[in-house]
Inverse folding.
């Protein structure tokens, strides 16, 4: 009797679980197939770390996304609402996956700005693709998101980015280390997550090909005390490549190098670009965006953003986010015209490559590469940290 | 040889922090027979209090007072703040459960731990807070010090190791050479008998929490002077402090200090000679081995029970 009841319970639970999964799948399918009126309020979702160690990045990106949504749609005859989803880097990809399921199930969400980090982008790409939602990331730079590497591609046809990938950042950093810093001995770190591992591999490969002696260290993403790692850095090391996504970690590492009397220069990737937190003089960071205050056509945009954000400082992560929103809105407009006013989500990403933007916020004209879902002719910028803690552009 | 010396210095530095945390564990366990798993988060709160006071006094780049006074004030504020927190935790989370089965206060301690960590995260976010002690006096804490066979021993590490040792000596003196310390020892032997002899048990327990939490506060500041602090840092550091207390012999003050140093060195040597990825594995393997083969630790007493 008891066995029978137990068995019946197991069968019931299994049936309920299967029905829920089917229901969720149908909901996703229904959400992706149905159109939404272009005259209604369409939703874009910004998926970025707003809290945690990389919260500075997400906060900056969100401020620019909000400004873009406040100013651009009315010039295109669109009504847009911006949603925001928080993905703290300390929690791994789980928050990104949860948000992906939430946004996929909402038929009025027609585009995603982000995810900001490569790990989150890789984890959630399939969910968005199956729901037919276009994504443009303003900062996920891992190569396999848009390139096939060793037969694998982790992105989808619906994933785009308006910043160059690590296959450009890596060689840019490595070339600077080789040609300008003339380094002979380099230590390359990774933090056991996709962004740093991809960048570390790209940089190591270039350096080794150019005769530089390269050694590797690997630290968990949650490390705060780098003493043991610093101890393992040979005293004849010229440069330590430190592609962290947490600028305080780069600062601590640089200080602990000095504490142990080591002369190596720290070279951070775009994840370390945060003058308020990583400002150890003599060290370097790379980023995919220049200082846009030097671009005359951006004067109006900058003034407007600063008026909306009086306490914020102009950084490098925000402008590509504005650009991503601009591209997405243009793609929505093209898709709306094609769909005669009833927008199908998948048509946004299918028409994404038709978008060209003159007077692009990062300079020049924005075009897509014909081969991948990356911008055409993008490059990375190298900054050196000055004695006053400010960043100075040292390459063009 | 230089590599070994540097690793030993690393081990002594982080081991001193573990030792201060372990002292708190051992003190509270010795008197109350309670494993206060919230102790690691009291350490975390201490690091945050220190950060707040540091910023209020102008920050590391522009302090309003001399550096030595700044460090004293920051550490003192953290110790006082954590003492108050310890008293509050004892009063509301442990005292009502004093006569309950042992599992009840243990669960309550875990609850307090999660409450503190999540409250701090809600209030201050999950990001890291950097004391930026490198900026104090133009980097004096990093550049000044002495050289040992080519290895630079900076002032900051001397302060960390020295402070831990001084606090341990003060604690040892308090426990072994004062009336209050005698009352604490009596309570730890037999609470009922101590009460019958006129010792105010509540006061003794509160004083124990004041002492233990003050040490955690000091440890928090010593830790955060070197590395950024954040809301989730207390759990792992607390576990390592507990491991150090077990290695040294829970209930033994010198044992807690020795356990902390040994643990810090084990972690450092593993990271240096083997791989950094396995240092936590080694630390907790040591805990398991001690629990199996020498549960009383290096300096703990063997309990004799009448049958």
């Amino acid at each position: 009797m008891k066995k029978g009841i137990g068995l019946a319970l197991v069968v019931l639970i299994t049936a309920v679980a299967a029905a829920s999964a089917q229901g969720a799948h149908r909901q996703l399918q229904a959400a992706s197939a149905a159109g939404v009126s272009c005259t209604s309020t369409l939703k874009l979702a910004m998926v970025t770390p707003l809290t945690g160690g990389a919260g500075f990045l997400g906060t900056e990106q969100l401020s620019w996304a909000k400004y873009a949504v406040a100013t651009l749609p009315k010039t295109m005859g669109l009504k847009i609402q911006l949603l925001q989803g928080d993905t703290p880097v300390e929690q791994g990809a789980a928050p990104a996956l949860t948000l992906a399921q939430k946004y996929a199930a909402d038929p009025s969400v027609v585009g995603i700005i982000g995810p900001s980090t490569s790990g989150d982008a890789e984890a959630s790409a399939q969910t968005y693709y199956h729901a037919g939602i276009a994504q443009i990331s303003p900062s996920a730079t891992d190569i396999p998101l848009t390139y096939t590497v060793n037969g694998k591609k982790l992105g989808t046809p619906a994933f785009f980015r308006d910043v160059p990938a690590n296959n450009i950042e890596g060689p840019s950093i490595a070339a600077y280390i080789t040609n300008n810093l003339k380094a002979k001995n380099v230590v390359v770190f990774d933090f056991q997550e996709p962004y740093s591992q991809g960048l570390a591999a790209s940089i190591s490969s270039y350096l080794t090909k150019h005769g530089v002696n390269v050694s590797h260290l690997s630290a968990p993403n949650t490390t705060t005390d780098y003493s043991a790692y610093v101890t393992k850095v040979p005293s004849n090391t010229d440069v330590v490549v430190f592609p962290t996504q947490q600028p305080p970690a780069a600062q601590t590492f640089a200080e602990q190098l000095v504490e142990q009397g080591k002369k190596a220069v720290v070279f951070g990737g775009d994840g370390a670009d945060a003058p308020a937190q990583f400002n150890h003089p003599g060290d370097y960071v790379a980023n995919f965006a220049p200082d846009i205050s030097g671009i005359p056509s951006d004067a109006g945009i900058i003034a407007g953003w600063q008026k909306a954000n009086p306490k914020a400082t102009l950084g490098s992560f925000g402008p590509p986010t504005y650009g991503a929103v601009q591209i997405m809105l243009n793609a929505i407009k093209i898709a709306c015209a094609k769909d005669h006013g009833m927008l199908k989500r998948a048509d946004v990403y299918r028409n994404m490559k038709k978008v060209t933007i003159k007077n692009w916020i990062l300079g020049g004209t924005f075009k897509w590469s014909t081969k991948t879902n990356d911008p055409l002719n993008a490059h990375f910028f190298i900054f050196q940290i000055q004695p006053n803690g400010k960043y100075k552009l040292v390459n063009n | 040889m230089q590599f070994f010396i540097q690793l030993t210095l690393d081990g002594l530095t982080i081991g001193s922090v573990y030792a201060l945390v372990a002292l708190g564990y051992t003190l509270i366990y010795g008197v109350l027979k309670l494993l206060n798993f919230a102790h690691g988060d009291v350490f975390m709160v201490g690091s945050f209090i220190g950060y707040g006071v540091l910023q209020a006094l102008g920050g590391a780049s522009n302090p309003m007072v001399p550096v030595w006074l700044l460090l004293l004030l920051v550490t003192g504020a953290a110790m006082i703040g954590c003492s108050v927190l310890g008293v509050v935790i004892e009063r509301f989370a442990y005292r009502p459960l004093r006569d309950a089965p042992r599992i009840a206060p243990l669960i309550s301690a875990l609850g307090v731990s999660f409450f503190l960590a999540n409250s701090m995260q809600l209030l201050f976010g999950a990001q890291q807070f950097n004391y930026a002690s490198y900026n104090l006096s133009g980097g004096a804490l990093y550049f000044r010090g002495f050289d040992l066979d080519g290895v630079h021993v900076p002032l900051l590490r001397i302060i960390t190791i020295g402070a831990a040792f001084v606090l341990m000596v003060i604690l040892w003196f308090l426990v072994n050479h004062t009336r209050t310390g005698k009352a604490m020892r009596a309570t730890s032997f037999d609470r009922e008998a101590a009460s019958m002899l006129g010792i105010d048990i509540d006061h003794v327990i509160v004083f124990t929490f004041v002492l233990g939490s003050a040490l955690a506060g000091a440890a928090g500041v010593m830790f955060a002077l070197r590395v950024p602090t954040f809301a989730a840092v207390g759990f792992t550091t607390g576990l390592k402090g507990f491991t150090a207390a077990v290695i040294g012999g829970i209930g033994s003050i010198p044992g807690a200090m020795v356990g902390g140093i040994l643990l810090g060195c084990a972690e450092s040597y593993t990271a240096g000679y083997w791989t950094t990825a396995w240092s936590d594995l080694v630390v907790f393997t040591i805990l398991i081995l001690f629990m199996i083969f020498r549960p009383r630790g290096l300096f703990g007493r063997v309990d004799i029970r009448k049958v």
